Backbone:
């Protein structure tokens, strides 16, 4: 099996790094090709960050978008609008949106279509809650969520999966290497069942309390094609250390 290219995506959520200009300067100075690096700022900073990073190896992404191309949706942003602001990828189905805002997998699948229609990359996030894990249902829940979040005809070359157990997000308690290995294996199996051989090459990122302290346990796991990083991506020293560890 071809090892997918590694990626690291910083998800700033509803935050901005303290010294934004200095943060972007460090990223812009980067010359290495791998891992592929992206940052997902809040929508109001998207255009500024994209402009500053133009011509560098760093991609800029949105944290969400609406499934419609345009229309009367007060407060929402379409895939064409975030693309126009400079986004080349879009996070979709993050647990903070599924849990906090009641987003369904069916809605996530429509958003994937909207993003891919614009030839942007969709990063589809899946993962179980602690209660689901403790009930022994982590694998079946995550596979169901994954498969129903992927639309018919998804463009695999513009799709990344992020396994993010809800209990590990923002808690300081990352999943351990065994848990990650097992769940990435389960997700890989589901992708191959759904897409056949091309499902083998789809990158599966891990997310959930990834820090410079645990990256060295996570990075060597064969099925980990990179990381989706929240809190630690706001600190440029921490984020740079993660980039280096995945290189
Ligand atoms: P965290 O967030 O790294 O702060 O746990 C990860 C994410 O929500 O993508």
Residues:
């Amino acid at each position: 099996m071809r090892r997918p290219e590694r990626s690291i995506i910083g998800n700033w959520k509803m935050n901005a790094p303290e010294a934004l200009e200095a943060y972007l300067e460090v990223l812009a100075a980067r010359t290495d090709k791998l891992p592929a690096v992206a940052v997902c700022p809040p929508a109001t900073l998207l255009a500024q960050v994209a402009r500053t990073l133009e011509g560098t190896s760093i991609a800029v992404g949105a944290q969400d978008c609406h499934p419609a191309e345009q229309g009367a949706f007060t407060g929402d942003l379409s895939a064409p609008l975030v693309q126009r602001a400079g986004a080349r990828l879009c996070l979709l189905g993050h647990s903070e949106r599924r849990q906090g805002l009641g987003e369904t997998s069916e809605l996530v699948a429509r958003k994937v279509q909207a993003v891919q229609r614009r030839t942007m990359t969709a990063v589809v996030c899946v993962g179980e809650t602690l209660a689901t894990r403790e009930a022994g249902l982590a694998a079946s829940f995550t596979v169901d969520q994954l498969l129903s979040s992927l639309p018919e005809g998804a463009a695999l070359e513009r799709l990344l999966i992020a396994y993010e157990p809800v209990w590990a997000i923002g808690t300081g308690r990352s999943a351990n290497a065994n848990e990650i290995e097992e769940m990435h294996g389960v997700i890989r199996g589901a992708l191959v069942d759904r897409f056949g051989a091309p499902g083998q090459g789809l990158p599966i990122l891990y997310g959930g309390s990834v820090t410079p302290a645990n990256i060295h346990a996570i990075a060597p796991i064969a099925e980990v094609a990179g990381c989706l990083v929240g809190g630690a991506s706001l600190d440029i020293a921490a984020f740079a250390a993660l980039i280096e560890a995945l290189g």
About this structure: The beta strands are 7-11, 36-40, 58-62, 89-92, 121-126, 159-163, 204-207, 226-229. The longest helix spans residues 177-195. Residues 11, 164, 169-170, 207-210, 228-232 surround 2-phosphoglycolic acid (CB under 6 Å). The radius of gyration is 17 Å.
